[in-house]
Amino acid sequence: MKNLLRQNEMRLEHLNERSVTRPSVSSGFGKVPKKFFGDSSKDMYTLSLRLQLDENIWCCKVLCESKLWKKYKLPFEVLICVPQLFSYTRDTIWILMILIMFSNLLIPNCTLACELSIAWSLDKLRPLIFPAFLIARHEAKRQREQRGRKKRNRKATYFKEISADSDSRYSRETDEYFHQLYAQWN
Question: Which Pfam family, any one of them, does this sequence belong to (predicted)?
Answer without folding.
Answer: Sre
